Amino acid sequence: MQTHRFETAPERAGERLDRFLASALPGLSRARIQALVKGGQATVDGRPAKPSQALRAGEVVEFHIPAESEPSPLAAQDIPLKILHEDKFLMVLNKPAGLVTHPGAGNREGTVANAVLHHCGDVPVAGGTDRPGIVHRLDKETSGCLVVAKTEPVQRALSAMFADRAVEKTYLAMVEGKPRHPHGTIDAKIGRHPVHRQKMAIAERGRDAFTAYRVLGSEGPLALIECKPRTGRTHQIRVHLKHLGHPVAGDPVYGRRGKFERHLLHAWKLAFVHPGTGKRVEFTAPPPGDFPEWARKLSAG
Question: Would you name the residues annotated as active-site residues?
Answer without folding.
Answer: 139
